[in-house]
Amino acid sequence: MQYAMIIEEGEKNYSAYFPDLPGCIATGETLDEVKQRMREVLHEIQDGSFAHRWLDENELGRPNFNRYREEAANEPMEKVGRDLRSLMNKQGLTTTTG
Hints:
By secondary structure, the protein is an alpha+beta fold. The protein has helices at 31-47, 49-59, 63-73, 76-90, and strands spanning 6-9, 14-17, 25-28. It has a three-stranded antiparallel beta sheet, with helices on one face. It is extended. The N and C termini lie far apart (41 Å).
């Protein structure tokens, strides 16, 4: 089966995803690198190794997921979002997230 791959060029890297496979994304410093990473991701989905790692991760209490989530929460953009939501709440406006 073939999948369409969307590749986007950023300031310092490339990112890619398959629209038909939600969550299937990769980044790379070069166009060749991002294409290779996407081939690897697709192979892992097709051979079931991604699903096995995901199940193992959940059985162990999601240590990698929680670490990534904590790292992402400390990104500057997330701080800006928290600050904006706080200001909106102070103004009596509602937000859909914390």
